[in-house]
Q: What sequence folds into this?
């Protein structure tokens, strides 16, 4: 199915060539290309921003900078004369990371600035830049902001941005076919970018690394980018820590830190170098697109399903992101339709399981007429205050009458929204009870919520 959608993308004349792949928790599981050799490198353009964010967080984790540092602490040559008002905040590193610095969207201009020299960049910053909003107040996609982060990395690390990313991320992660110019060692060579002109494909020259490499300068292959995306997604696995960048910092990258107010379909916003979409209360998709003269790229993955797509094409504005999105959405829908059992309950605290057993036994005692009290070692003080014992047992008797009493069947899990929460069913003669508990955040957690009701849907 995925191959057919990408082949249709090319058949519509979107680009001369494309490459794509699917990955899961075990790595790249399927790769295909058309119009180029296997393992060909493409420009990944703004997908580079995730590497910039990861490099910056590694310096933060070393204690060499703070995310709430004003950017002028490391880039003092930046003139702030263009701030909206005398009371404006100085943009911080975090504001730049989350696309909320107040700088305007600048794709067409910035896409042509990659090879800018350090001296020219210094001159641009010293002349001043214009802000369209108060820093820290709204989302606007700014490439200049990420170019500034590239300069922060250079100042703090004492190395060029390109060499720092290579040494800190690419080499230790084994991304041997990823690099900052067309000489990257990809087995299939490097795809040439194109644009449409007079009904034909016109090849475009490559631009070299420079002061704007941090916004989109990397080349990569399907295999390498899938490995990168899978490594980011693995931060939510157990024992996912890594010497390259901690699991905590990688999880931090994949949180919705700044809402994109232009998107109305579902909550969507920016993390650190990545977009985050809340597909549903229990489903999040992380992604980033890349567009450069002659190239289009996209990577996206489901955090819960650990299933993702990477895709490239070698044409300006080919919108390979739309096809990659359609592919992942279709795969996720297939998985949802194929699921014949309820979603598995996530790992619970041992105390939550123990409380389930104790509460089930207590309800059985109540059902048998033994109105045992609420033990303070099991229940927090609020439980008796929120609904006194006599009212709880009276409500239970009514519910039991409705389902013909409890039977000897085993409890079955219903759902959980986290380690301290669980809902389950107790079978009855003509229906079932739904029981729900939630534990306190104490060192020795106790039940703070106890709800019991007839499950009408299960009758």
A:
């Amino acid at each position: 199915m995925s191959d057919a959608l990408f082949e249709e993308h090319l058949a519509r004349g979107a680009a001369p060539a494309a490459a794509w792949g699917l990955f899961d928790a075990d790595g790249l599981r399927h790769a295909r290309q058309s119009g180029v050799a296997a393992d060909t490198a493409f420009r990944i353009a703004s997908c580079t921003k995730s590497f910039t964010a990861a490099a910056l967080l590694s310096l933060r984790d070393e204690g060499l900078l703070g995310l709430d540092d004003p950017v002028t602490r490391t880039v003092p040559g930046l003139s702030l004369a263009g701030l909206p008002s005398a009371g404006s905040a100085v943009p911080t590193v975090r504001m730049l990371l989350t696309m909320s610095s107040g700088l305007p969207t600048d794709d067409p201009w910035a896409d042509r600035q990659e090879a800018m020299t350090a001296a020219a960049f210094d001159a641009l910053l010293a002349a001043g830049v214009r802000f369209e909003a108060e820093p820290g107040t709204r989302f606007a996609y700014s490439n200049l902001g990420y170019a500034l982060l590239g300069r922060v990395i250079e100042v703090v690390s004492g190395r060029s941005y390109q060499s720092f990313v290579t040494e800190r991320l690419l080499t230790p992660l084994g991304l041997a076919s990823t690099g900052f110019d067309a000489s990257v060692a990809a087995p299939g060579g490097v795809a040439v970018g194109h644009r449409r002109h007079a009904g034909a494909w016109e090849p475009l020259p490559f631009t070299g690394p420079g002061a704007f490499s941090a916004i989109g300068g990397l080349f990569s292959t399907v295999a390498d980018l899938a490995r990168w995306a899978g490594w980011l997604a693995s931060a939510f696995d157990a024992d996912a820590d890594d010497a390259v960048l901690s699991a905590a910092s990688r999880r931090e990258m994949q949180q919705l830190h700044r809402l994109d107010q232009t998107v109305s379909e579902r909550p969507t916003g920016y993390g650190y170098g990545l977009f985050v979409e809340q597909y549903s209360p229990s489903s999040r998709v992380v992604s980033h697109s890349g567009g450069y003269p002659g190239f289009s790229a996209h990577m996206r993955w489901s955090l819960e399903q650990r299933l993702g797509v990477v895709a490239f094409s070698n044409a300006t504005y080919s919108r390979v992101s739309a096809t990659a999105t359609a592919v992942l959405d279709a795969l996720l829908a297939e998985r949802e339709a194929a699921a014949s059992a309820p979603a598995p309950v996530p790992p619970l605290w041992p105390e939550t399981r123990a409380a389930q057993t104790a509460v089930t036994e207590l309800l059985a005692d109540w059902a048998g007429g033994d109105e045992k009290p609420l033990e303070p070692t099991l229940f927090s003080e609020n439980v008796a205050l929120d609904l006194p014992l006599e009212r709880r047992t009276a409500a239970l008797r009514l519910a039991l009458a409705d389902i013909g009493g409890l039977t000897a069947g085993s409890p079955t899990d219903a759902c959980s929204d986290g380690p301290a929460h669980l809902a389950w069913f107790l079978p009855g003669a003509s229906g079932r009870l739904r029981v729900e508990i939630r534990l306190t955040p104490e060192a020795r957690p106790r039940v703070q919520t106890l709800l019991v009701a007839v499950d009408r849907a299960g009758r």
Q: What stands out?
A: The radius of gyration is 27 Å.
